[in-house]
Amino acid sequence: MYLRADSGSVARNEHMELRTFGLVSLLLLAAVSGVVMADHGGLHVTQTEYGGDARVQPNEETNTMYLWTTERFNATATVETGNASGNYRACLFAHPTDNSSVEPKELACQPATFEPGETRNFTFTDLSSPTNATTKYELRFVVDNALQSGDPVAEQTTNVTFLEPDKDLDGDNLNNRDEVANGTGIDNADTDNDTLEDGEEIEKHGTDPLDADTDGDGLRDGLEVQLGMDPTWSAVPLYILGVLLLGGLVAVGYRLLAPRVGRVTSNAGGATVDDPTSNGGTGGTTTVSTTDDSSVDTEFVSDEDRILQILAENGGRLMQSRLVELTDWSKSKVSRRLSTLEEEGRIRKITLGRENMVALPGHEPDGAQSPFEEEQ
């Protein structure tokens, strides 16, 4: 009976010991796991930079970095360890972005032993692009745990495009090397957005691929080419010539179509002048009328024609002094024009006392005709 009791107690004690051991083991395992996780706490890559002869420096802002496949490049990275300590590796890998089936290529690796709270710099020099790398890649700077699983514990990725100098990435008939030399977009066929590709502008038209309006005349290069114009020669002189021609046509049209203006004005209702031939030559007044509705444009009427017009509008004859008033010319100018008309036989000058009367043929006062006319 006691034996059975002792056996049961022993069994119970053994069971309790096993449970206690298992519980302690779990606690120890959790503690160890926590230490392992804590070893990597705060470890991170703060920055990566790439340089060297392979680094392409295009004159445009871009989110992609370019590297020549024919040159070597360098890589630097900065790591802050945080709470991490122990042995690690710092490596640089290249992986094509459009082909996930390709294994990342290791470009360089360095062992590293970290202490908590450190800032470590890593430098890789004389690096070359992967074989036949002519597309977009990811450059991954990775820190992994070399002594344990080897899995990455921190990394930073940079997008890069590897370029062959003699190839044409954007297909604008300008190779990559010339794109860099001209400052045009390596992956933009029309840098200035004028509808002409960069290669066409440089090789064919001689225009500036960085300026949509090379000649500065307000027309984009592509539009000038479509219109058959020279995009390197300003059309501003043509604009000015066109405006001048248009102005000239308007002026000519106005002169031809607008009412002709050439009015001879006098006192309203007419003016009175002494007429020594009326009333038997004893004197009197003769009303001299002028019209305000003359349709003769003085700009196209000669001085002689104007005198003839005034005479016709005033009964065919006037005193010379009155002609001076109506024309507003000098006495000498009126005298010269009358002499010309008299020589041509278009007027007659008749002396009356101290004054001259000017008359159209057939409008002379009685008794003023020539002796030849009286005989007839």
Automatic annotation (TrEMBL):
Keywords for this protein: Calcium, Membrane, Secreted, Signal, Transmembrane, Transmembrane helix
Disordered: annotated segments: 164-219, 266-296
Biased composition (Basic and acidic residues): 164-180
Keyword Transcription: no
Compartment list: Secreted
Stretches with biased composition (Acidic residues): 189-201
Coiled-coil boundaries: none
Gene3D superfamilies the UniProt entry points to: Winged helix-like DNA-binding domain superfamily/Winged helix DNA-binding domain
Annotated ranges, domain DUF7343: 301-361
A Pfam family per the record: DUF7343
Transmembrane segments: 236-257
PANTHER family recorded: EXPORTED CALCIUM-BINDING GLYCOPROTEIN, EXPORTED CALCIUM-BINDING GLYCOPROTEIN-RELATED
Protein name: IclR helix-turn-helix domain-containing protein
